[in-house]
Amino acid sequence: MHLGIRTLQLLPNEGAGKDALPYTFCLNGEKIYIKGVNMVPLDMLYGNVGWQRYAHMTALMVNAGCNLVRVWGGGLIEKEEFPGGVRRGK
């Protein structure tokens, strides 16, 4: 599957007050509903996480209907195996 992002906008929610932050996502001119999760490091020891664990976590997110993952950036940068336990070049 290929996806092309031409435009991404945050629009005001319909009926929201003037001071409200915009939380309606508009992708390529189409409003979309965002259902997401926050992800923290999967293990305190960075080396303990392999592609299988990333694949398992990603499958759980997909099965829950998520289309956005916010990765907490206060600690470490996730490995290339994330997202989805994708094993590049295999």
State the major sheet: 3 strands, antiparallel
Outline = elongated
Strand tally, please? 5
Helix content: 10-25%
Distance between the ends: 17 Å
Low-confidence stretches: 85-90
Q: How much of the residues is beta strand, in percent? A: 15-25%
Structural class: alpha+beta
Largest sheet: spatial strand order: 1-2-3
Mean pLDDT: 84
User: Cα-atom Rg, whole angstroms?
Assistant: 16 Å
Secondary-structure element pattern, one letter each: EEEEHE
Task: Write a compact overview of the structure shown.
With 90 residues, the chain is α+β, with helices and mostly antiparallel strands. The chain is built from 1 helix and 5 strands; from the N terminus they run E-E-E-E-H-E. The chain has a 3-stranded antiparallel beta sheet, with no helix packed on it.
List the helices and strands and how they pair.
Blueprint (H helix, E strand, L loop, with lengths): L7 E4 L12 E4 L2 E3 L3 E4 L11 H13 L4 E4 L19
Parallel strand pairs: 4-5
Antiparallel strand pairs: 1-2, 2-3
Descriptive tags:
about 15% helix, disordered C terminus, 5 strands, alpha+beta, about 90 residues, two-stranded parallel ribbon, three-stranded antiparallel beta sheet
